[in-house]
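User:
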Amino acid sequence: MRRLLTALAGALSLAALTGPATAVVGGGPADPAAWPYMAAIYQQNGKTIWQSQFCGGTVVAPRLVVTAAHCLWNKAGAPAQDQSTLRVRVGDPKLDGTVGTSAGVVAIARPPAAEPPYRPDIAVITLDQDLPVQPILVSGDSRWALRAGAPAWTAGWGLLQEEGASAETLQDVKLRTLAPGMCKTLVGATAFEVCAGEPLIGGTDSCQGDSGGPLTGWGYDKREYLVGVVSNGFGCARAFLPGLYTRTDFAPVAAWLESQGVPVVRDTGGSAGPSTKPVVRVLGGTMRVGKPFRVSYTVRAATTRTVEEIILIKDGQPLDFDTTRLSRSRAGQTYYLEMERRTPASFQGKVGACVVSVDEFGNTSVRRCTVLTVR
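Assistant: Predicted structure:
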């Protein structure tokens, strides 16, 4: 009997000790040349640009900028900003007004509900002049760029850590995209959202003020694409709570972007990308309070140098559970684990079960997640 959470606790303690140091959270100052399409959205209200900037955006055409809908509308659906004083600025990493170009706003639009009652958190701003930057390609087919574990990047002028100070210059950070099932388990992602970060230890994320900014990835054709828009999250850079991004390649979103004049590329290289067939099948279902809690899974490609364990998550926090290994076979064959314990009433509701692989060096990675119901 062993406890993977003991090892995870050390990683979590280290993350808490070091903290999200300098960044969008966990990154650092960005190279402006790497983000020519990065836009700052602000109000021309007598304050400095840095003081009045409230969201990010991405230049996708000479006069079109993609951002998050919640930057421009409140929860009741009313405009949250005065369009007559709304401005978009590019080429100014410090937002001090000494370099760069600003443009006024002539129209803003957002899509209808794609999955009622859910509405994609994305919007398009139309400007009063062309911006002197090269727009980024917008992906309508992100099977390669958003494959589980693929690298992705985001940038912004938001908080450097949860409840911290805002960045004085553009920051960026490298993230990892997570599988749809894991996103749904950890943060309740819908079909038009992807989550990204470090699911076990946190430490990297977008934060307040970064909303509307880009999530970028590389296609099979080795070109950079806009694959998502910074949307929301639970705090910033917390363990088990990766950030959420609206996907540009969700079919209704991609079609709506095209209706707004945004060029959308649906073939990022003529490849379906790598296989997304799961290597792990998690068996669960409905659990009953007071009954033994049993979860088993099968790994179809076990190796002799990795150990797979199950962790349970509720409300973003790992649950301490003993894991009992029932059997293990040679590399390439299947093996099973099961956990048994009387289910406490406090577990009622939705519980996430994730399979975590640990290699001989202690490196961990999440393989597969599912949602269990406790009644």
